[in-house]
């Protein structure tokens, strides 16, 4: 047996409402949003394929997380299925500023051997977001 991928990562937020609105504009599904709003769940998550980002809202405390986790500590790379131009258009339509790219990058697929380009942006907590486009 071996490790084959990751199920989820977690990140704190300083403003859950802004974060939810931002990721919804980008087309992501927010899991457990209604339960979180009703006070029936302590956290919510952002679904990405078969993985997710658990979001720890302001005021959330947990003993099982990184001891220095603060809003803005994440650096997340998404895989975009399509062209760099289509990704730029999607980000522009959502009102998200591209801070760098597209530019050549070395991704994880094929041990870093597949050519790719990336675009970078930031979310409301200033987490660094990257969209990797395999060529």
What does this protein look like?
The protein is of the alpha/beta class. It has a single domain, classed as Roll (2,3-Dihydroxybiphenyl 1,2-Dioxygenase, domain 1). Helices cover 19% and strands 34% of the residues. The chain is built from 3 helices and 8 strands, in the order βαβαβββαβββ. A hairpin with a 2-residue loop joins strand 3 (44-48) and strand 4 (51-56). The longest helix is centred in the first third of the chain and has 10 residues, at 16-25. It is globular and about 45 Å long. The mean pLDDT is 95.
Tell me what portion of residues adopts beta-strand conformation: 25-35%
Element string (H = helix, E = strand) = EHEHEEEHEEE
Main sheet: strands, sense, barrel: 4 strands, mixed
Mean pLDDT over the residues: 95
- The number of distinct β-strands equals 8
CATH topology label? 2,3-Dihydroxybiphenyl 1,2-Dioxygenase, domain 1
| CATH architecture identity | Roll
Q: Residue share in helices? A: 10-25%
């Amino acid at each position: 047996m071996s490790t084959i991928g990751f199920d989820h990562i977690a990140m704190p937020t300083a403003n859950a409402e802004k974060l939810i609105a931002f990721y919804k504009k980008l087309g992501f599904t927010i899991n457990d949003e209604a339960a979180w709003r009703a006070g029936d769940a302590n956290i919510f998550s952002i679904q990405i394929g078969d993985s997710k980002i658990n979001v720890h809202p302001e005021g959330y405390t947990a003993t099982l997380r990184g001891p220095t986790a603060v809003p803005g500590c994440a650096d997340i790379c998404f895989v975009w299925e399509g062209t760099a131009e289509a990704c730029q258009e999607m980000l522009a339509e959502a009102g998200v500023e591209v801070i760098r790219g597209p530019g050549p990058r070395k991704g994880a697929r094929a041990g870093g051997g597949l050519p790719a380009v990336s675009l970078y942006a930031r979310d409301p907590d200033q987490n660094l977001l990257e969209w990797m486009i395999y060529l």
